[in-house]
Design brief:
The first copy, chain A, has ten helices and no strands. By secondary structure, chain A is an all-alpha fold. Chain A binds a DNA duplex through α4.
DNA sequence: CCCTGGCAAGTGAGTGCTCACTCACCTGGG
DNA sequence: CCCAGGTGAGTGAGCACTCACTTGCCAGGG
């Protein structure tokens, strides 16, 4: 149960952005990931959110803005989880890396509709705004992971023969592999020991 | 220098498919990866190939067929490289894994326009035909890698505490991470020791 | 308690544009 | 003169976005 100390959270400003803001966002995430950016027409987005097309444009100036808002909504949720983990085991880098990976894994399984967003952004990377968002999120993760790998090596908690920067890239890149696996319905993904076997590669 | 023993290779059947077949394919690959599937209009594809739009439809029944043909063209080139490596060092699983990874890495650097194709297919994975192509290529790689990891473990060439299946997935998933890195212009990608540091993670 | 004016929120037919694909026609080598 | 190979204006469908309009809520005057 989180504290209600800060009145300026996303939930509180909901009404300031309009009563349907959150409904539209979550419905749009569903549609975007069921199809893709181009196939998710504004007509369909509006229909699935239970509103008229015109209403959509009272909330978001363009379809692209709506999409980027969805992307931020998803990445913010992930980052919140990572911060939670950091609060719990930030002093123990090995546990941190394990917990973050597991938390991400759970997130993918709980929110199948959020899985494909990274791929969309990557695909639209010719567009600078899409690329900037992806860059922000990926580099945040790579840098945080690198810091933790360095610490873990210093503390002697993991093997010391790896380059922390390269390790961090492939730790984060593993997130994309998980997306790929779930897209291809790889059964390996569902094996109970999967995450432990995966982490053994690095740690 | 490959042998000219088999007359039914892609190159030989070129004229049977029409005199402009290869030109259209390579120009299309360039356009698809510079933009994306939806933004690569048939008008643009034709213009870049130096032909009229109508001609495009004498060679490929639909835009989607053209795209899938491009995808196969690229993956076939990659598979040929892997087969070459197998011929050279197939008896030495550790070398095989290293050589395949390096060969892929070189391929990405030599052919920047082929990098994004995997991401496109992933993005269009709601379409069964796109998904099937991706599935074919990824599973080919995962299975081959798993076989080699098993062999390498049996021979005691690499650490024996990893699950070969999971290792194979993340070895192949690493290919996507390389795409991500080059898209984000990560300088780490260009470091001379990069590949060696990367392989040390697994081997 | 009712009436009413104002206005935030919601609507959906309409608009102009772009696209994949077609087809009637052209061209040059044998 | 035949025809494989090439052409590009044309077509209908679908798109993002607009705008003149409707709805429902609530304040405050009678």
């Amino acid at each position: 149960m989180p504290m209600k100390a800060e009145p300026e959270t996303a939930q509180e400003t909901e009404s300031a952005r309009g009563p349907r803001y959150n409904e539209i966002l979550t419905a749009s995430i569903e549609v975007f990931s069921r199809t893709n950016y181009e196939k998710a027409t504004t007509a369909l987005l509006a229909k699935e959110a239970g509103i008229a097309e015109g209403t959509l444009y009272r909330y978001f100036p363009t379809k692209k803005d709506l999409f980027l808002e969805c992307f931020r909504y998803i990445t913010n949720q992930m980052v919140e989880r990572y911060i939670d983990v950091y609060r719990r085991v930030g002093q123990d880098p090995r546990s941190y890396l394990i917990e973050v990976a597991k938390s991400y894994f759970e997130f993918l399984q709980e929110n199948p509709s959020m899985r494909l967003f990274m791929a969309f952004v990557l695909n639209n990377s010719f567009d600078q705004d899409f690329r900037d968002e992806l860059d922000r999120f990926v580099m945040f993760n790579v840098n945080a992971t690198e810091r933790m790998l360095r610490l873990a090596i210093e503390k002697g908690e993991i093997r010391d023969d790896i380059n922390p920067r390269v390790g961090a890239w492939f730790f984060v890149g593993g997130y994309f592999t998980l997306i790929l696996m779930s897209e291809l319905d790889a059964d390996d993904f569902k094996h109970p020991d999967f995450m432990d076997d995966l982490l053994k590669l690095f740690l």
